[in-house]
Amino acid sequence: MRQSTLFGRTLRDAPADAQTPGHKLMLRAAIARPLAAGIYTWLPIGFRVAKKVEQIIREEMNGIGAQEMELPVITPAEYWKETGRWDTLEPVAFRIKDHSGHDFMVSYTHEELVMHHGRSELLSYRQLPVAVYHFQSKGRDEARPRAGLLRVREFVMKDGYSFDADLAGLDKTYWAHHGAYARAFARMGLDALSVESDTGNMGGDVAHEFQVLTDVGEDRIVLCPGCRYSANMEKAVRRAAAGAASTAPAMEPVSTPGASSIEDLVRTLGIEAGGLLKTMLIRAAGGEVVAVVLPGDRELNEAKLRKLVGGGELAFANEADFAKVRGIAGFVGPVGLGARIVVDVSVAERGYVAGANRKDTHTRNVVPGRDFAGERADVHDVKPGDECPSCGKPLEIRRGVEVGNIFKFGPYYADKMGATFLAEDGTRKPFMFASYGIGVSRAVQTIIETNFDDAGIVWPAAVAPFDVHVVAMPVKDAEVRTAAETLVADLEGRGVEVLYDDRDESAGVKFADADLIGCPLRVTVSKRNVGAGKVEVRRRKSGEVLMLDAAAAAAELALLAKPS
Amino acid sequence: MRQSTLFGRTLRDAPADAQTPGHKLMLRAAIARPLAAGIYTWLPIGFRVAKKVEQIIREEMNGIGAQEMELPVITPAEYWKETGRWDTLEPVAFRIKDHSGHDFMVSYTHEELVMHHGRSELLSYRQLPVAVYHFQSKGRDEARPRAGLLRVREFVMKDGYSFDADLAGLDKTYWAHHGAYARAFARMGLDALSVESDTGNMGGDVAHEFQVLTDVGEDRIVLCPGCRYSANMEKAVRRAAAGAASTAPAMEPVSTPGASSIEDLVRTLGIEAGGLLKTMLIRAAGGEVVAVVLPGDRELNEAKLRKLVGGGELAFANEADFAKVRGIAGFVGPVGLGARIVVDVSVAERGYVAGANRKDTHTRNVVPGRDFAGERADVHDVKPGDECPSCGKPLEIRRGVEVGNIFKFGPYYADKMGATFLAEDGTRKPFMFASYGIGVSRAVQTIIETNFDDAGIVWPAAVAPFDVHVVAMPVKDAEVRTAAETLVADLEGRGVEVLYDDRDESAGVKFADADLIGCPLRVTVSKRNVGAGKVEVRRRKSGEVLMLDAAAAAAELALLAKPS
Question: What is the 3-state secondary structure (H, E, C) of A16-54?
Answer without folding.
Answer: CCCCCHHHHHHHHCCCEEEEECCEEEECHHHHHHHHHHH
